[in-house]
Fold:
Amino acid sequence: MTRAAKVTYLAALFIGLSVGLLREYRSSMSLLKSYHEIRFTIPPYALEEFTREQYKHADLEHARAALLTYANVLEEMEKAKADKTWKMELSLTYARLASLGDGAADLEQSRAFMAKARYWNLANGGRDMPDSEMKAALLKIDEVKGWSAHQIFSH
Amino acid sequence: MKNRHFGVWFSLALAIFLLSVWPGSKLGEKLAAYRYHSAQRRGLGNLSASEHAHLESVLDELDVIGFLRLSILASANNDKLKKVLPEEVGKIEDFRRKVKASEAKPVADLDLALADVVMALDEEQDNNKDMAKTHMRSAQSILQSLGWRDYPEDTLRGLTQRELESWKLDPPGSQHLK
Structure:
């Protein structure tokens, strides 16, 4: 094989590898970026469904644990990428935690959760509502969104 | 003669070029995945690097659980896919054993309970009453561990049927018939 042939073949190999690498790298990165964008735009579906089912059907302790986990994950997501969706979800989740506290006559905890619900509602650009008004709004929202607590059973 | 040599050279060079595009693209894919994962280990927004890595791993597991749940519901709603239902349930069981994040473990449990009720409904349709009962009991035991206050078979059937209905896709063209 002549030197010119070797150079040509090596060049073909190098150009082929580079073309494949660049093309796939760019398309994979763009896919992964879109995936990352979507992931930080909507609440995690499986966790949201789980929390809703636990809120509706589980006992107080398990329902509270599910809502707290959901709130923690949402707060982390809000820290990662501030978004109105998280603030709204956080406000509703803490209001639901407060309503569980009402059911268990744990008023102190209920007030603490309600304060957090009001904080996130204000952060979302909402007006400062009294607790009673916020709980009434939550009832309506939950009815529409299928979150009505304990539709089949009651605590 | 020179032209013939050039033809051979050129064909070989073209073949090498085309064949090397494939390993190049595999390298590109791996490099993108590596860069994406290393970006996940850096801080994001107000999250520290470790908080970000933890959040990403929780979200990864939740994404898989959500996908497996959809697979079960889609398979149960499609006569052709129904035969792969046991396989789909097996995938949930396998993944449930691998889940590391404490946030995702109970979510996988609820997925498995739903899958068990779907399997029970399927076995009932095929008149396999014993198998249906086994699946139903398994679902009830999981739900009990998740703190459900009441889980009679009829309630679970109703809840699962509603869930299946909500994911039922109308066959193409059926909108016009309504």
